Amino acid sequence: MDGQFKFSREIENFRKVFATFRDQKIVLYGTGRMTATLLQGLEGFQIIGLCDRDQALCGTMMYDRPILTRGQVERQADILIINTGESYWTTIYTRIQDWNIPIYFTNGQQAKLPKTNEVNFPYWRRSYEELRKKIEESDIVSFDIFDTLIMRQTFLPVDVYRLTEARLNKQAGRKTHFTEIRQRAVDLLSNPTLQEIYGKMAELLDTSAEELEVWQAIELETDKALLVGREDMIALCQETMTKKPVFFISDMHYTSDILQELLAQCGLDVKREQIFVSCEKKMSKENKDFWPYYKRMYVGDKNALHIGDDKYADICYAEEFGIRTYQVLSAMEILEHSSAKAIMPSIGSLYSSLAIGIVSARLFNSPFALNVAKGQIRFANEQEAGFCILGALLDSFMSWLLRMAQEKEIDTLVFFGRDGYLLKPIYEYFLSCDSALAPYGKNSVYLEISRSAVWSASIFNEEDIYEVSKFPFKGTFREFLQERYDVAMDPQDVGGDLVVSDLQNAMDVMKQRLSIYKEGILQQSAAERAAYRAYFSSLKTKRPFAVVDTMFHGTIQYYLSRILEEGLEGFYLCVYTGKDNLYLEKNTMYSCLSGNDGSVYSSFVYRQSEFIDAFFTAPVGMLKYIEADGNMVRAETMTNQEYFEVRQDMTAGIQQFIGCMRALQETLGIEVQDEDWADRLFGCFMDQGFQPSERIKQAFFFDNQVVTKREMAVWDG
Q: What's the predicted TM-score (pTM) here?
């Protein structure tokens, strides 16, 4: 088997995208794995050199190409291509954007910086302290209720009806068309109460109002489940009520007794006579007829202040009648002006509405959450980062894993190390949030494993030795022999300093070098294979089982299946299952993510693989092999292990998100999912959607030890 097949798509894509540049002199920015493999398939292209952020490498050779300085690139090359993972593009281009040469990304687009955030948005100049001062200067204060004092954990208010409909459809076993009918009823009425709306719905459905009482109860129950208080606004309102008259004004179909209950649920105890609601007064803020009434009956000559989120109903219309106002943005309006605003056009499914609602309730609970940072999201701590960046993604993956276990009747999920070190406890937490646990997938096992360990243990013959040798490696032949085959070099052998990438371009020479160590490699592999089989048996894994990993071709699953001599099923966050994936031989793989265009290559998890690889690790070094006595020989720990506590903090945040989402769905009695949107939300945050703290920057490094021992900071391309 050709170990290079899995990189053929990258090479093919490059050749296609840059076909018109074949006759031009090209420099590749990046000296990592992508360049190592790309160079092996670019016959006919003039790749005259490479660039690297480490200036100390300038003047040296790598992959038989010189590392060039900026001046050399500008003088000698026609174009420069940033040949790295997408997560590095912006960082690298920011660094070299003033170079006097056309610069491209590997997708063929000419490099450019993303659009800047709305730093001049006037609202960012407002503050909690400013609002408090305006309240102190007022004689009488009124608050809007929804999106000002309390908020729903949904994207849009209409999603309350959509969720209600999902519940009713499940209960009835058919489509009820609840949302459509309810909105039609409202359109036929003026400032209606909830009861009046349902009376009209009964007319439209030609049924009795009593038959719709269950619907009405479920709608209110749904809304209650979604509501949370905006904590600093609640506190400010409580403080104000101890000093001066306060009223609550809402254009709503809930009567004042229901609104009183909802406010109390969110931590605010008020009297019914303080609440003015359109459905009872039969006048509204939006129609302008409420404000002259309020001015005449309650304000008079007093200095009144109204606080609300709606630019027109709460602000412009109130000011027409001499009432001072102060606008506070709703959580969704803050999102619209935030560094994560790119996610908004994609929010359509019920899951996406709930997920963005949960995230917004955490990030934008305060109307002034982003004012100091002028729209740039900065997480308060690593728990909040995990909650927002990875919460929906991992909640979706865990839900998918459980569903797959039921569908395939899997008893035990075997989580591969090192990714599984965090995935397994996240899955177990997910199970603890499910009160109606299905019969399968309840058991989980953590399996110590790595590509290095299974490669060396799955060598049965000389051809296997050569197959394993084809995977990229940066270093000398001496290091290669030790790292790839766990065999020490003969001190008398003078070829120890040969560059492996050069040998891989001349496989006859590589085979000749490896043949010297054939017997030692086969003997070592047999010993490692026996030890690994004994270790696997000691886990007493219940069958049928399926293996679990994050991504991407199922290399480890394939080689484990060779060691165990049986085909395996694998569940992945993101895995390529095309016919040209030779690792599918005698194995089955399933992907949670399908990608935005049906290709897992377009998924944000794949595009941000450096971060995924850096996040999902263990606090110990990579497993190299297992000795006969069961001792696990590991590689040295690296920066990711040094800062493992950051991952634990983020994992706590992920579990908090899962707890919130599971509790909501259990209360509502429905199951909604949208794995590819959860992937999109992850991608939105990773693509300039937040400003990482210094602690996060220090904690994440891409360290593919199978290829090289060099580390690359995820947020320092």
A: 0.84
